[in-house]
Amino acid sequence: MRKLTTLLVLLFLTGLQAVFAQRNVTGVVTDASDNTPLPGVSVVITGTTSGMTTDVDGKYSITVPNDQAVLRFSFIGYAPQEITVGSQSTINIKMELSAEMMDEVVVTALGISREAKSVGYSVSNIDNTVLEESKALSAAQSLEGRVAGLNINVPTSGAGGSVAIELRQAGNPLLVVNGLPMGTAGGGNTGIGRDRGNDFNRINPDDIETMTVLKGATAAALYGSRASNGAILITTKSGAGQGIGLEYTSNFQAQEILDYFEFQDLFGQGSGGRKPTTVRTSTGNAQFMWGAPYDGQPYPIFDGTEIPYSYVGPRITDYYRLGQTFTNTVAFSGSTGGSASSNRFRVSYSNAKDKGLEPDNEYQRHIVNLNFNHEILPKLVFSLSTNYAKENRINPPETGGQGRNSMNFLTRMSLSIPLEKFQSKENAFDPVTGTERVTSGFQGTLLNPYYAKLAGYSDIRDSENLMATGTLRYDFTDWLYIQGRYNYASSSDASETKDPGGIGTSNPLTSDGYYKGSYNRGSTWSKNINSEFLLGLDKKF
Q: Whole-angstrom distance between the N-terminal and C-terminal Cα of the chain?
């Protein structure tokens, strides 16, 4: 018995010692080249499964079991590091690009190719096999998780929506296509409104030869203040190899909305623990779900009918449809050789049709891309790259805020009322005013999404965009050349909006200030011209 007691005491003391040996280690992980914080770095205690990742500021905090613990820091594109904790309570790490990354040849500003280790800033090359595997509608989506410090937010704003891009938390980088500065790579809808895409949507991922991310203002100094947040350089395919080639790719993707909402299912429509007893009170508090406990007994709703006072369940998946994206590309190419000065060409056509999750939201796109190189003289080469894109956006959903935001209606309208009660024309339209039947007493902000559709609402935008880059280069020797480049871009947008009157009010005279609704047509156009001259010297002394 005495031996057993002694053993238990020893075990207790050992466990107590282990508890006291544990302590917290904190620190910051940064890029060794420019000291910017690195979010998402994996910090793991070797030999265990305990670990975490750095936050947006590159900070971490981890509990280690003892002084002998070894922390392993790893991140895509960077050389991993292992540090023995010892008596340290703060361990700051500067991560270097991996040796494999340093040996890469990258494209920098003005299309100049250099070794990654020879430039004074961070550069990341995107393998075009990544684009071929992901087959996303926008090439920007393929960058997710591929570049350190590049945050990608996939669009939730409807078919053909813009992808939000942030480089090292500094903001949107500049998008440069075949040497032509286009505009910010991210952007589009950033708040309340309708997302109508951005320049990344006008590039077919199947046409991309190389994609390079230049990080920081220094990396893109030649592009001026537009590239203060870095730049994403895209070069399109121009034909390779020797002979004639024909390519065809087809892709299909499906999207289904995920419903993670959790609603209480004990109390029904009403407020203050009271169930509505008249049509008027039911109409006035349709957005409240803190009435009496469900009892299954009939009660009046906004359309004058009676339904059981029961929980009907969430309706998110009942309202939204299955999203579908079809993309097809056909390309014809030819070449007389594999060198940069050879005669080669590539022409491609692609079309895409994206049916959004919102029932009446669609996006259609047609892109024609033409690239060719021609050796005019043995040392004089002319190249031309053109890209024409035509887009059609139909009824992009309203995001953010209230108003005709369908998610606002679906998540706030009482879950005592079945969704089908709002779908019919009889229930969507007020029989007296002929406008929307008001189903909420909260300032008319819970708007029936079916009313606008039934009343003829439409928001259509057609856009055309042409990009062209012509380059003339003469090589005096194998180390000295002169080059001139001319970039031209033009875009035009035509929009048409039909907005029915009587939305959110029982008085058609005060419905958004219009009696019968509104009709708007508009058009915009722009041109962007860049030209440059370059004398290049590449010789080792």
A: 86
